[in-house]
Amino acid sequence: MIRLLLAEDQGMMRGALALLLGLEPDFEIVAQVGAGDEIVPRALETRPDVALLDIELPGRSGLDAAAALREALPACQVLILTTFGRPGYLRRAMEAGAAGFLVKDGPVEELAVAVRRVLAGERVIDPGLAAAALSAGPNPLTPRERDVLSAAVDGATVADIAAKVHLSPATVRNYLSSAIGKTQTRNRMEAVRAARQNGWL
Amino acid sequence: MIRLLLAEDQGMMRGALALLLGLEPDFEIVAQVGAGDEIVPRALETRPDVALLDIELPGRSGLDAAAALREALPACQVLILTTFGRPGYLRRAMEAGAAGFLVKDGPVEELAVAVRRVLAGERVIDPGLAAAALSAGPNPLTPRERDVLSAAVDGATVADIAAKVHLSPATVRNYLSSAIGKTQTRNRMEAVRAARQNGWL
DNA sequence: GCCCGGCCGGGACAAATGTCACGGGCCACG
DNA sequence: CGTGGCCCGTGACATTTGTCCCGGCCGGGC
Hints:
The structure is a homodimer.
Chain A (H helix, E strand, L loop, with lengths): L1 E6 L3 H13 L3 E7 L5 H8 L3 E4 L8 H11 L4 E6 L4 H9 L4 E4 L5 H11 L4 E2 L1 H10 L6 H9 L6 H8 L3 H15 L4 H10 L4
Parallel strand pairs in A: 1-2, 1-3, 3-4, 4-5, 5-6
Helix pairs in contact in A: 2-3, 4-6, 7-9, 8-9, 9-10
Chain A binds a DNA duplex through helix 9.
């Protein structure tokens, strides 16, 4: 019996996947969670063989949780299952010790075979995505630039950002400017868009 | 036998739902599509009793397709299934003649019962969402304001927008300003965010 | 008919934004 | 020990953005 943990915030998706995987005769869903900060505790309780994690989760990112899970329960393999095939996500997933990376496009059948492969010690990664991740190069943004850029989503003014990050407005503008330069964009919104696109959040 | 059409762009979600609904003894999935502009043609071919439509689809919005489908095939009931419970979406769905509106949170079991209810002539709508839709009021934006605001996503400059919408830059700024006023926000990004939030895109 | 509202444009102005040059402090690496 | 990178801040500057005027052209409704 292969013991599975499933982390996914969308209730319908979670339920459908659980039902689906439960149909496989040798699979058993031992835990379903809808928030990132429940992953590690539930895993410690239920000792799954494979954890299927979404990335965008309330509470804690699936990538964060993946790293923590590898630490706390090395026997458990991590398979990332995400909507967005962003190069930076894949890179971070690998750095976090994930054994596989699937996007939610692709057919459902992929899922079960991926689980089995991962358990067999293989790594499963979309080849095209791997190429994109390599060609995109590593994250050029410094930690501070990331902070400022993250705080700049949904139209915050410089003053808002400065307050949120506890910096001088002047400094914020400098970081924004350098981030805009590094992303080769023309303004802050394009910069956040580009950074998100690449998974450099 | 209840004949179903399923429109959803995410392959995994589509596959999982199809499998799930196929499990019901009296359901039959007669068509699966991944793009909005395939909905009506496929429906005319396959004559489903109920169409399950996502809203955000490539090619054509599910809401658009819903209206066209009600026109072309009045016997077919429309059930909107979406990630975002935006008040304006619900409103537009109702205006398009949809019989039900479900969000992808909530448990999977809801889905089958919703299909049966819709077929029985009932309307299925989340009560909380209905209240929100009523309290939010109708879309205050004029068509042009919508155009300009839509073109303002991901950091386009005034010149970009003017070129995209074939207007003078001065006019664009006026529309942006009035849209900002109507959404009670401080800049264009907050305005697009607010407008999207309410489903006024 | 007249008025109202949406459409389209212009001009002028304050504020916000993006850029550049410049300082100093800190830590790591050769 | 120097050098380079990141951190944090300042000041000045041109550009962009948001706002408030103004004008005119339509079409629908009382």
